[in-house]
């Protein structure tokens, strides 16, 4: 989000040099810069001991394609805490091992996505209300029903890293 008016006092912001950042919106009343804001979330590709991953259907995201677990980072929470919380909330699974795999910019949603591989023991799901269905699929079957690959789709970089980690070709 790019600020035009001060969120605290409502004054119109003026561009002001901020070191190496260039011109940044400045409030003359509050004496403060207002740097652009964006959302941060965690996205987790969950895998079990049988080399299966979780794909889930979330109607608020798509009626056609399946996705992986994700969620917004709450104030005071780390990206890792969010990843573990979201897997527990959405799928009812406890993450045994969490591997950070990088950050990804999702321009359409103005989000910085913190990507993880989450390892769990295979078990039944206990789905939240926001997840219509979830199922275990062999790692190589993910592209059959997941969102199609695009430059901003974080599912595929995580999928490739998981395949590499497991030594799976294809």
Summarize the structure in short:
This protein is an alpha+beta fold.
Q: Measured on Cα atoms, how large is the radius of gyration?
A: 19 Å
Name the helicity range: 10-25%
Spatial arrangement of strands, main beta sheet? 6-4-8-7
Strand percentage lies at 25-35%
What is the averaged pLDDT score? 95
End-to-end Cα distance: 40 Å
Uncertain ranges: none
SSE run = EEEEEEHEEEHH
| Tally of separate helices | 3
Q: Which class best fits the helix and strand makeup?
A: alpha+beta
Shape: elongated
> What is the count of β-strands?
9
Q: Report the major sheet.
A: 4 strands, mixed
Oligomerization:
single chain
Provide a descriptive summary of the structure in words.
This protein is α+β, with helices and mostly antiparallel strands. 17% of the residues lie in helices and 32% in strands. It contains three helices and nine strands. It has helices at residues 79-91, 142-145, 155-166, and strands at 14-17, 23-27, 32-33, 39-47, 52-57, 69-72, 97-106, 111-119, 133-138. A four-stranded mixed β-sheet has the order 6-4-8-7. A hairpin with a 5-residue loop joins β1 and β2 (23-27).
């Amino acid at each position: 989000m790019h600020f035009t008016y001060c969120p605290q006092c409502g004054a119109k912001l003026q561009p002001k040099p901020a070191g190496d950042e260039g011109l940044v919106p400045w409030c003359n009343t509050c004496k403060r810069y207002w740097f652009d804001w964006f959302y941060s979330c965690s996205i987790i590709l969950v895998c079990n001991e049988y080399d299966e991953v979780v794909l889930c259907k979330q109607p608020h995201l798509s009626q056609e394609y399946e996705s992986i677990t994700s969620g917004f980072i709450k104030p005071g929470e780390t990206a890792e805490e969010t990843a573990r919380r979201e897997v527990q909330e959405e799928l009812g699974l406890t993450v045994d091992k969490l591997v950070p795999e990088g950050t990804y910019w999702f321009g359409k949603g103005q989000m910085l996505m913190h990507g993880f591989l989450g390892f769990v023991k295979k078990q039944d799901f206990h789905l939240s209300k926001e997840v219509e269905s979830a199922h275990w699929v062999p790692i190589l079957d993910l592209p059959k029903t997941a969102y199609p690959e695009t430059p901003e789709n974080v599912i595929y970089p995580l999928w490739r890293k998981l395949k590499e980690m497991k030594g799976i070709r294809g």
